[in-house]
Specification:
Blueprint (H helix, E strand, L loop, with lengths): L14 E3 L2 E3 L6 E5 L7 H14 L3 E5 L3 H10 L7 E4 L4 H10 L3 E4 L1 H4 L2 H13 L3 E7 L5 H7 L4 H17 L5 E6 L3 H14 L5 E2 L7 H17 L5 E3 L6 H14 L7 E5 L10 H11 L7 E6 L2 H8 L4 E5 L4 E6 L2 E7 L3 H28 L1
Parallel strand pairs: 3-4, 3-10, 4-5, 5-6, 6-7, 7-8, 9-10, 11-12, 12-13
Antiparallel strand pairs: 1-2, 13-14, 14-15
Helix pairs in contact: 1-2, 1-10, 2-3, 3-5, 6-7, 7-8, 8-9, 9-10, 11-13
Length: 373
């Protein structure tokens, strides 16, 4: 049996974001955010549907004006995932979003204004079963904290978070989660570590404004991954200057790499070399794209030669090992099964996975029937 490590997570309070429970022993959820104009509700719904297909758990939508909160009334009934309304300053937008059916409000209570305005937002959240995310960001820290600490520091981020927490707690509201994001991975990680020690509210992890698809993936993986490895974090959002669907893919890949999620296909593949018996890069790319819709946990190994291929195939559901320039060996559940030609390999792997998924689903349905009987 391969060595596997189960990361012990810090147990936090549980917050409901619509049908998704965040915190406690619940699975770590993956979020993303639309980049369409919210007022263009058709484009926004289309993008949310694409995110749902990718497996997203929660989607955030920006609401900078009243037209956007009005659009929420059309958007929310058309989608399946909970919607978080992103509110920055005007308290009326938060109230409108809660009344429109948003499952959560992303706000900084200190930016909302007077305590009376905060109370109005809290009242709307309570009346509409709406949670809140306190979103602290190093790029928009309160001026008095910059004056005090001279620059964004972990201590400044923590003080901001604790201040906003107290505002909500004083308003007798505890259904919230918190984030302390920064584009500086060291600042973000230290801030989250300090916040995790200071409270037991669920934490929303992210390295904000991380960059392009490639560089942002690296930064997010380092920051979010290191925190998750420490047992810190209950929900994550990878911020990329790319198609939001890519954020979801990277998010789940981070979770799968740490054994925190087994959702979908996990691929083990080699970088390829002169020993490869098939075009590894081409086959892996095509198989990954063809199986992106699979939600059942399936582990596949695709290695170009026998050096490590047989060993990896012994611990995967389906293994492909190159043995010559013309044919390859397929392993099923760790056992050598049959040979397949290079020309057939992609279609054959896709068929094997789909058949394995169908068998798992049939078995699961049968077990459920027996339990009910």
């Amino acid at each position: 049996m391969l060595y596997d490590y189960i990361i012990p997570r810090k147990k936090t309070k549980v917050v409901n974001v619509g049908k998704v429970k965040v915190g406690g022993e619940n699975p770590i959820s993956v979020q993303s955010m639309t980049n369409t104009n919210t007022t263009d509700y058709i484009a926004t719904v289309k993008q949310i549907h694409a995110l749902e297909t990718a497996g997203v758990d929660i989607v955030r939508v920006s609401c900078p004006d009243q037209e956007s909160t009005i659009a929420l009334k059309k958007i929310i009934p058309e989608v399946q995932v909970p919607i978080v309304a992103d509110i920055h300053f005007h308290y009326r937008r938060a109230i409108e979003a809660a009344e429109a059916g948003a499952a959560c409000l992303r706000i900084n209570p200190g930016n909302i204004g007077s305590s009376q305005k905060v109370m109005e937002v809290v009242k709307a959240a309570k009346s509409n079963n709406c949670s809140i995310r306190i979103g602290v960001n190093s790029g928009s820290l309160e001026p008095h904290l910059i004056d005090k600490y001279k620059s964004p520091t972990p201590e400044a981020m923590l003080e901001s978070a604790l201040t906003h927490m107290k505002i909500l707690e004083d308003a007798d509201f505890f259904n919230f989660k918190i984030s302390v994001k920064s584009s500086n991975v060291f600042l973000a990680v230290k801030s989250y570590q300090m916040l995790s020690q200071a409270c037991d509210y669920p934490l929303h992890l992210g390295i904000t404004e991380a960059g392009s698809k490639r560089s942002g993936t690296v930064l997010s993986s380092l920051g979010i991954g290191s925190l998750l490895w420490q047992g810190i974090g209950d929900t994550i959002r990878v911020s990329l200057s790319a198609d939001p669907v890519e954020e979801v893919k990277v998010g789940f890949d981070i979770l799968k790499s740490l054994n925190l999620s087994n959702k979908g296909v996990k691929i083990i593949s080699c970088p390829s070399c002169a020993r490869q018996g098939f075009d590894v890069v081409k086959v892996v790319t095509e198989v990954e794209e063809r199986l992106a819709h699979i939600k059942e946990p399936i582990k596949i190994s695709m290695l170009g030669c026998v050096v490590n291929g047989i060993g990896e195939a012994s611990y995967t559901d389906i293994g492909l090992v190159g043995i010559s320039n013309k044919e390859n060996v397929i392993y099923i559940n760790g056992q050598k099964s049959h040979k397949i030609s290079n020309e057939e390999v992609v279609e054959h792997l896709v068929k094997l996975v789909e058949e394995m998924v169908a068998t798992k689903e049939k078995t699961k349905a049968l077990n459920n029937t027996n339990l009910q009987g």
